Automatic annotation (TrEMBL):
Protein name: Small ribosomal subunit protein uS9
Upper taxonomic lineage: Bacteria, Pseudomonadati, Bacteroidota, Cytophagia, Cytophagales
Region (Disordered): 105-128
Extent of Basic residues compositional bias: 113-128
Organism whose genome encodes this protein: Algoriphagus formosus
Gene Ontology annotations for the cellular component aspect, listed alphabetically: cytosolic small ribosomal subunit
Gene Ontology MF: a single term: structural constituent of ribosome
Gene name of this polypeptide: rpsI
Amino acid sequence: MDVINTIGRRKTSVARIYLAPGKGEITVNKKAIETYFPFDLHQIVVKQPLTLVGEEGNFDIQINVDGGGIKGQAEAARMAIARALCEVNEEHRGALKKEGFLTRDPRMVERKKPGRRKARRRFQFSKR
């Protein structure tokens, strides 16, 4: 098997991953996953597709993420890993799709409008 390259996006985060056969090492921006994502929740989110299909410990994953916050980056990495697992074995697609790991989450921050304080919030009204 060759190295598989896929991309995942969430909010303004973009994750590019390289999946190769190995012994389960995950590096994010040339750091260990425990260093880059110090919270256990974000580490679990990144590893969800691997645990779902029972492939944890079989692949070395190198992740390059940029943009957005830490949660968006973790979810972008999750999407990229799910896409790569579909390329490895097409039988994984059904389980991953059912969990929603292959669906791009379209929710983004709404832009600020002119004449408003935020996207929808108006300035305080004063009658006098």
